[in-house]
Design goal:
The protein is α/β, with parallel strands linked by helices. The protein contains 21 helices and 16 strands. A 5-stranded mixed sheet has the order 5-4-6-15-9, with helices on both faces. The chain has a 4-stranded mixed sheet with strand order 11-12-10-13.
């Protein structure tokens, strides 16, 4: 595969020494090189190739941050100050970023307004603004299933456009986890007919995955311990196979009917789909044969209708007696709330909902990678709106947030960093869930679709699985039905 940037092997070791020890130093250096602190509507600043009003890099390097930006700020009134607006899901990742923004404004003078919304609202608002070309949001924090649409419709600036000839500014690129960036932020170059020729599109804001949350108190109950030993002939350990997880979940409910073995996410909107594909991949199945989620088009053959998929459906349904909550309405939020009630043993949880567990019930939970030998790479990118009037400010903000010292601070606040240095910090690895996250990302692979039919695939797999859960179709029919529906739906995309 040919990359437009280096495709180094994944490692948790940075490829160069960390740069800078203070937030002010990192921020000043990035902003000094990339753009302005406050953007004036009028003034003598030069116009870029994108038609954007920017302080020239030469002037910044020559005059220094204070002198150039001091004059710029002094000549602007508050009404002329541009505000960066960012939009994303209301989860621990954007909450952590929001807590850092006042410090960014203090060292840069750039004002950033963060809008946090639930998953569906953030997605619909992002899509509406980008497709209408209004440019209200300068940066949207969205996930890789949006990547194909954003690129093909030219909704966003790619990295070459964002860099604007200032490639030396974005030195954090060496720190980004390569498998994460390749999955979340790369795409084929136009005309999108060769998925072996790709380029970087956007920088990751978070490296999400799913990990196994376990209720320590339930698993330490004497009756549960005895029942587990009788079943497995050994003391409890985190399940290492999907079959073992299903058996362990059912043991809990059989032993104590007041408890539940697992909280599954059965809701539409991607929740059920993302959870179930772990079982599919863990049992050797695939939706398509490819290396990355975005590496397909509407003609790529489906491999969903397989024996492995049937087994994944059967295994998933086998946990129905042990499941907590109303399956069809449980998303990540409701799953988290179920776990906090303290009556459910296991859950496959999105990492960005895990910090709520430890902040509200620190002693109740322990964590491990999901069963099997691979984990899902998920998360999303800073997508810069092509219609932004503040591209240089957007670049400065992204550079600041991805700098080593800020990545460490964000990780301590609940963000799951897409860069390597935080995972080498003992202080970060003392956070209860971080060792499991680190191990998951080290073995992370493509599991979630991110091509032009990603939404269709998610929807049809969800429909088939929900019908199977209701008992309206047999487990053997679910992969067949989903494959047929996807093939038919592709015709109208």
């Amino acid at each position: 595969m040919s990359f437009r940037t280096r495709g180094e092997a994944f490692s948790l070791a940075p490829t160069h020494p960390s740069r800078g020890n203070s937030d002010e130093r990192n921020s000043n250096e990035f902003i000094h090189r990339t753009g302005r602190q406050r953007l004036c509507v009028s003034g003598s600043n030069k116009t870029s190739a994108l038609g954007l009003n920017v302080v020239s890099r030469r002037d910044l390097l020559k005059s220094g941050l204070a002198s150039v930006l001091g004059g710029a700020v002094g000549s602007c009134t508050d009404s002329h100050t541009q505000i960066l607006r960012i939009l994303g899901e209301d989860s621990s990742n954007l909450k952590a970023i929001s807590e850092i923004l006042p410090d960014f404004r203090r060292v840069s003078g750039i004002e950033v307004v963060a809008e946090l919304a639930d998953f569906s609202t953030a997605l619909s608002k992002s899509t509406a603004d980008l497709s209408a070309g209004t440019g209200y949001y300068d940066i949207v924090l969205q996930y890789n299933f949006s990547l194909s649409s954003y690129v093909r419709n030219r909704y966003i600036l790619n990295i070459d456009e964002l860099k604007h000839g200032n490639a030396d500014v974005f030195r954090f690129e060496h720190d980004i986890l390569r498998n994460v960036w390749n999955e979340l932020g790369f795409y084929a170059i136009p005309p999108f007919d060769n998925f072996n020729l790709i380029e970087p599109i956007a920088y990751p804001f978070a490296a999400n995955t799913m990990i196994l949350a376990m209720n320590r108190r339930i698993l330490e109950d004497a009756a549960i311990i005895d029942a587990y030993k009788e079943e497995f002939h050994r003391p409890f350990r985190p399940p290492t196979t999907w079959e073992e997880l299903a058996r362990a979940a059912n043991i809990i409910s059989r032993t104590n009917p007041s408890l539940k073995g697992i909280a599954l996410q059965g809701a539409a909107g991607g929740w059920l789909y993302y959870e179930w594909v772990h079982f599919l991949f863990g049992l050797g199945g695939r939706i398509m044969n490819k290396q990355y989620g975005w590496q397909s088009d509407l003609n790529t053959p489906l491999t969903l209708n397989s024996d492995a998929a049937v087994q994944a459906v059967k295994l998933y349904l086998s946990m129905k007696p042990a499941n907590a909550g109303d399956f069809y309405s449980v998303d990540a939020v409701k799953q988290r709330d179920i776990m906090l009630e303290g009556k459910t043993a296991f859950a496959l949880m999105w990492t960005d909902y895990i910090p709520d567990l430890t902040s509200k019930a620190a002693d109740m939970f322990t964590f491990a990678p999901v069963p099997g030998t691979a984990s899902m790479i998920a998360g999303g990118c800073y997508f810069v709106n092509r219609k932004t009037r503040s591209a240089a400010n957007a670049a400065a903000l992204i550079s600041y947030l991805l700098s080593p010292s800020i990545q460490k601070r964000l990780a301590k606040r609940g963000l799951f960093p897409p860069t390597a240095p935080p995972f080498n910090e003992p202080e970060i690895l003392q956070i209860p869930y971080m060792p499991a996250v680190r191990d998951s990302l080290m073995r992370g692979i493509y599991m979630a679709e991110a091509g032009p039919d990603a939404d269709l695939i998610s929807q049809e797999i969800t429909n088939a699985l929900q019908l199977a859960w209701k008992g309206e179709i047999r487990p053997e029919q679910a992969p067949t039905n989903a494959t047929k529906a996807i093939s038919e739906g592709r015709k109208s995309l």
